[in-house]
């Protein structure tokens, strides 16, 4: 993950990486919610903000922004929770009301882009993070986790 940037704010994707589109399929855990989307492989990013840590139940969240116009809900109906950040910004967290899987987040007032949750995407093995954001809130051990923990 040498393209990952360490920053305290949102970072742009690396300028040297070529654009690459992929049609993906996704779903919640219980499969009540299913969707398709057109995504840019170069926009996968890790978010270390405290809100993502809490709402994901993990040390960080991996997001993939896509345009609302490139997202198609195939089946199901999403439930929405409005999260208010410390800054006062509001985000709509959209999830399955049956199993609780978060599908995406978006702006409350102008939902032009959805931040898909990479874990819900069938082709997630192809989705390598290209940047990160809110590095100042990252848990210290996340920077070298692969060196400390070898997956078997």
UniProtKB/TrEMBL annotation:
Tell me the GO molecular function terms. carbon-sulfur lyase activity; metal ion binding
Checking SUPFAM superfamilies in the record gives: Mss4-like (SSF51316)
Q: Which UniProt keywords apply?
A: Lyase, Metal-binding, Zinc
Q: Does the keyword Lyase apply?
A: yes
Domain of life assignment: Bacteria
Gene3D superfamilies (alphabetical): glutathione-dependent formaldehyde- activating enzyme (gfa) (3.90.1590.10)
Q: Which InterPro entries match?
A: CENP-V/GFA (IPR006913), Mss4-like_sf (IPR011057)
Domain CENP-V/GFA, residue spans: 24-142
Q: Which PANTHER family match?
A: CENP-V_GFA DOMAIN-CONTAINING PROTEIN-RELATED, GFA DOMAIN-CONTAINING PROTEIN
- Report the family membership: Belongs to the Gfa family.
Q: What is this protein called?
A: GFA family protein
């Amino acid at each position: 993950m040498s393209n990952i940037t360490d920053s305290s704010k949102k970072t742009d994707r690396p300028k040297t990486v070529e654009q690459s589109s992929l049609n993906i399929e996704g779903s919640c855990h219980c499969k009540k919610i299913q969707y398709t989307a057109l995504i840019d492989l170069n926009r996968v990013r890790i978010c270390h903000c405290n809100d993502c840590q809490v709402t994901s139940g993990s040390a960080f969240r991996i997001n993939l922004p896509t345009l609302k116009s490139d997202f198609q809900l195939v089946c199901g109906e999403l439930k929405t929770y409005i999260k208010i950040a410390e800054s006062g910004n509001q985000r709509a967290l959209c999830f399955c009301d049956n199993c609780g899987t978060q599908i995406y987040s978006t702006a409350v007032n102008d939902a032009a882009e959805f931040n898909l949750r990479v874990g819900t995407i069938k082709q997630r093995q192809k989705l390598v993070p290209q940047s990160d954001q809110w590095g100042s809130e990252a848990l210290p051990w996340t920077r070298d986790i692969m060196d400390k923990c070898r997956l078997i």
